Amino acid sequence: MPATDGPDDAARVKQLAVTLVDAYVRKDADALAAAVAGIGGATAEVTSDLKVFAAFLTRRVQETGVVWKPADAREAVAAAVADMLPPEIEFAVVTAWEAYSVGEEAVAERFTNGDPVVYVHMLAAFCAAIGGAVYKPAELISTLRIAAGLGD
Q1: What is the 3-state secondary structure (H, E, C) of the chain?
Q2: Cα angle at 7 between 138 and 21, to 5 degrees?
Q3: pLDDT tens digit sequence for 108-128
Q4: Looking at residue 7, what is its pLDDT?
Q5: What is the tens place of the pLDDT at every residue in 17-59?
Q6: Closest CA to 95 of 106, 108, 81, 80
Q7: What are the φ and ψ backbone dihedral angles of 145, each rounded to 5 degrees?
Q8: Domain boundaries, the chain
Q9: CB within 10 Å: which end of the chain, N or C, has fewer?
Q10: How far apart are CA 68 and CA 32, in angstroms?
Q11: From CA 6, how far away is CA 64, in angstroms rounded?
C-alpha cells in the first residue's frame, strides 16, 4: 500500500518536499532534520515530488536564459549540503549527485549505500540551488507551493 492513500496524505507529502527545499534555501539544519524525520514511509513519494520540482526548475532556468552548466549544479549541490548533513551523508549526496547529474543512475545508486534519503537530500539541495538561480528565496518557495497545488 502506498504511503499516500488520500488527498490529505498527498498534500502532506508535497508540503514535506517544499519544506525540504526551504530548509536548504534557508540553510536551516534543524528544519531539515525535522522534515526528514517526518518522511516516514513516504520516501518514494517525496522523491517523486522533488524530481518534478527539479524538472520544473531546470525548465525554468532554460526558459530564462540563465547559463547553468553541469559543473555549476555539482558545485551548487555541494555548497547547499555543506554543514547541513553529517559528513558521511554529505559525501554520499555529493558523489551520488555527480553521477546522477550526468545520467549515471546505477553509479549514483551505489553511492547512496541503499539509503533512499540520500536521493531526497540531493534532489532537495539541487532544487534549492537551481531555484536560487532564477528566484529569490521566498519567491522560490511560493512558486513551488503553487506548482505543488498547495496554494501560496
Answers
A1: CCCCCCHHHHHHHHHHHHHHHHHHHHCCHHHHHHHHHCCCCCHHHHHHHHHHHHHHHHHHHHHHCCCCCHHHHHHHHHHHHCCCCCHHHHHHHHHHHHHHCCCCHHHHHHHCCCCHHHHHHHHHHHHHHHHCCCCCHHHHHHHHHHHCCCCC
A2: 25
A3: 888 888 888 999 999 999 999
A4: 62
A5: 999 999 999 999 999 999 999 999 999 999 999 999 999 999 9
A6: 108
A7: -60, -45
A8: 7-147
A9: N
A10: 25
A11: 36
On whether the CB atoms of residues 16 and 38 are closer than 8 A, the answer is yes
* All cell numbers assigned to 28: 536551516
Provide the greatest CA pair distance for the chain.
42
Confidence at residue 38, expressed as pLDDT on a 0 to 100 scale? 93
Q: Measured between alpha carbons, how far is 140 from 108 in angstroms, rounded to an integer?
A: 27
CB 100 within 8 A of CB 71: no
Cell numbers for 130: 537551481
| Residue type, position 21, single letter | V
